[in-house]
Description:
The chain has 183 residues and is an alpha/beta fold. It has one domain: Rossmann fold (3-Layer(aba) Sandwich), CATH 3.40.50. 39% of the residues lie in helices and 29% in strands. The strands form 2 sheets. The protein has a 6-stranded mixed sheet. It has a two-stranded antiparallel ribbon with strand order 1-2.
Amino acid sequence: MDSKDQREELRTLIVSRAVERKDEGFKLTSGKISTLYIDLRRLTQDPGGINLIGELILQKIRELAPNSELIGGMETASIPISTAVCLLSAKSNQPIGAFWVRKTVKDHGMQNRIEGNIRKGAKVVIVDDTSTTGGSSIQAAEVVRQYGAEVVLALAVIDRGAGENFRSAQIPYDYIFSESEVS
């Protein structure tokens, strides 16, 4: 299946299985209220859905940031996506490792803020399922930079208008679908 067919198949899955509407609205992570809610966890926890998401994100990385070494983002939305990309990339001559950023430092064990394969100087892609303001991804990027890694790209499966905030944060940004393509 080519990328155009994969994209259309994923769009169809999102529209049929992940989009909810409610007149009184849903409170989003950003704090905004929207009558439209896109619950991509319904697809990131589904074998077919996560495979399509992983394939399309990996294609975007190869196109826009081909020297990327790691992918991750803020818990929990980024975890299945970065894991899928990590697994799919293992079949190539340029595997991409995965990590995830905790919202707060663990109070036991190693007390890590980042779990997984982060290292100084690594070229990193930050990923999220949906991005309204980009707040979670921008926060993850700040933590990654504190570890000495370089954020080369931020990606979302669905963009809900975060582009300007990424430009302000000086983070290259792209997405698979705009909100209007799936609503």
